[in-house]
Every structure is written in C-alpha cells, then in structure tokens.
Amino acid sequence: MKVGIIGATGYGGLELIRLLHNHSKVESITLFTSSDEGALFSAKYPHLKGLYDFPLEAITKEAIAKLDVVFTSTPSGVSGQLLPDVANAHTTFIDLSGDLRLKDIADYETWYHKKPAPQAFVDKAMYGLAEWQDTTGAKVIANPGCYPTAVLLSLLPLLKENLIDGSQLIIDAKSGISGSGNKPSQGTHFTENTEATSIYKVNKHQHIPEIEQAIAMYAGESYPITFSTHLVPMIRGIIATSYAPLKDGVTETDLYAAYDKYYAQKPFVRVLQDATRVSTNQVRGTNFCDIHVNVDARTNRVTIVSVIDNLVKGAAGQAIQNMNLLFGYDETEGLTQVPIFI
Ligand SMILES: NC(=O)C1=CN([C@@H]2O[C@H](COP(=O)(O)OP(=O)(O)OC[C@H]3O[C@@H](n4cnc5c(N)ncnc54)[C@H](OP(=O)(O)O)[C@@H]3O)[C@@H](O)[C@H]2O)C=CC1
Ligand SMILES: CC(=O)N[C@@H](CCC(=O)OP(=O)(O)O)C(=O)O
Description:
Blueprint: E1 2-6, H1 11-20, E2 28-33, H2 41-44, E3 57-58, H3 61-65, E4 69-72, H4 79-86, E5 92-95, H5 105-112, H6 119-124, E6 125-127, E7 140-142, H7 146-160, E8 170-175, H8 190-193, E9 198-200, H9 207-219, E10 226-231, E11 238-245, H10 252-263, E12 269-271, E13 289-296, E14 301-308, H11 312-327
Bound molecules: NADPH dihydro-nicotinamide-adenine-dinucleotide phosphate and ligand 2.
Ligand 2 binds next to strand 10.
Pfam family, one: Semialdhyde_dh
EC number: 1.2.1.38
GO biological process, one term: L-arginine biosynthetic process
C-alpha cells in the first residue's frame, strides 16, 4: 500500500507517520507540504533522522493519483477546497479535519466560519466513527473530531438502548493542548496554560453540531446538547464527562450490559468498572478509548466518563483504523502500542 499525508508537518501528520511506520501493509509514505517543498523532513524534525531523510513534496494531482490512500491532516477550510480538485477514481481519502463531517454545508459555514466544501463532495464522504459506521465502499472518509470520538463512544450505547434521557445531556470535556495544532497562539502559550485551566468556545464549539448529528444518525434522536470544552496543562489526552437522567427502572448493571452489547468485540474500547483508573495516562499514545459509568441514586442521574488520546483515537489512530477496516486488514494493524503510562 502506498500512502500519502497532506499536512505531514503538523501534529496529526506526525502522529500518522509514527503509527504508519510500523504498519505491515504500508510500503511507502509520501509526505506533502503546501509551504516547504524540497525541505528534508528529518532536518525539519530531527527526531526522524535516519528514518525520514527525504524531501517534502508539492501537492499535485499526478502525485496523489499514484497513491492508494491519502490522509489529509490540514487546518479547517483546506481539504474541503483541495480534495474535490485532486480526487480520482483510484485513491481513497481519509480527512482528519472537520471539513467533510457535517452533512449540511450551511451548518459547516455557521460553526466553522469557513468556506464549505461543495455539497456534492460532502455527500460522497462517509462519517468514520469506526466502532459504529460500516464504511464499506467509501472512497472518502470524514474522520471524526477528537471530542466527538470520546463523547460518542461513551454515550451511543446508552442512548441507543434508551437507558438515559439524552434531551437533558450535559457534557463537560477537557483537552491537552496538542489538540489545537502546531501553530502557537496567545491561547496556547506555555506561560498562560502551564498553571491554568480555562474554558473556551463556550456554547460555540464546532463539535456541538457533529455530536448532535451523530446522535441522530446512530441513536435516532434529535435534540440540542450542552457541551463545554476546557484546555488543561498537558500535551495529549481528552477526558469527557457527561451527565444525564436515567430512564425509569434502569440500573447500573443495565448500563454496563449495553456497553458489553456494543463493544465486547471491539478491540479499542475498554470498559472499566473501577473509576480510580480512568485517566488520560491510561490511554496515552494508543488507540484505546476507556469508558466508565456510575449511577448517582440520590439524583437519579448517571455520570459517564471516557478518555482518549486526542492525537491517536481522536485523529491519526482512528484514521488508520478506518483504513484497516476499509481495506480488509486486521483492525488493530499498526495500532497495538502499549500506553505511555508515565
Ligand atoms: N490535533 C488534534 O488533536 C486533532 C486535530 N484534528 C484536526 O486535524 C487537522 C490537522 O490538525 P493538526 O495536525 O493539529 O494541525 P497542525 O496545525 O498541527 O498542522 C496542519 C498542517 O497542515 C498543513 N497545511 C496548512 N495549510 C495548508 C494548505 N493550504 N494546504 C495543504 N496543507 C496545509 C501545514 O503543513 P505545510 O505548511 O507543510 O503544508 C500544517 O503543518 C485539523 O483540521 C484539526 O482540527 C482532528 C482531531 C484531533
Ligand atoms: C484543544 C483544542 O483546541 N482542540 C481543538 C480540536 C480541534 C479539532 O479536532 O477540530 P476539527 O477537527 O473539528 O477542526 C478545538 O477545540 O478546536
């Protein structure tokens, strides 16, 4: 398999390289750039010296047509404009950005404030929440956002089995700073984050419509959600904690049975009954999503928590999992890393 990465110099791109490097089906990786054609990749990133001592390539239709799979790991507003121009009958595209996830391009414009991809191209893209979507036959996959991955994997079994009242959902999520990419900004500055935790994009986060759309798609329910995001002083990891009222007569055992029903055969979802071990360092560097639930009998509400590594299960890892599923490889190929616990 010949693969290419557009946005190879970014955090998602670097993570794709780290994981694809040990993928037994990958024969070559072409690294594309929009800004530094000809630069030696290992000179830009010396941790790759001796491993990727070759130059970055310009993004051309011809170069892309020679590849079996191209991952686009580019800022929002890029792949939605680029891919319709370079698409061909042979290459499969897996887009890590949000450009192709929202089915209605008017929603994309509202939440991303960017020019949307043509509706006809968005129509071709299949949302790739790997544990929930059969992507057979897809030529374009919209890889889910990092927060939606953590949130949806923990909520969907409970919503689908009608065990919780989703219309009252409140979701509180926190992310490491690598989630905002490699371009430094005031909001991600070391001095302003190292001893601080902050809320951002309050009630305006672009993942709100993505989560609502996926709940409608997979659980058949439509309502607005309350979803808040926070930056915490760590590099990788997302923890998402959700609260919802339990439906009448539902017990904690029923909740765990629902996870068992949907995830017993899924290699990357781990359901933990012991909350003392639900932490981002349990999954760091891996494609795992760990989930825990607890019923509060006093309030009749359930607390649902999940953790992922934003760069792996929330981006590059799930993208490779999608490639594996699409091409009929073992789902875990290239994704069997042990967590970097400390
Ligand atoms: N970081 C994360 O945890 C996650 C990120 N995502 C999404 O994945 C995408 C990539 O994220 P991330 O890697 O963090 O972002 P970065 O900002 O770290 O990297 C993006 C890369 O895209 C390339 N790029 C920029 N403009 C263009 C352009 N016009 N055409 C082609 N390439 C371009 C740049 O490389 P060059 O200048 O060499 O072309 C850059 O290195 C984003 O849409 C992000 O929202 C999704 C889930 C999680
Ligand atoms: C910590 C942090 O800033 N995270 C980013 C996640 C980016 C992302 O995954 O967004 P799209 O793929 O939908 O563009 C954010 O909250 O916007």
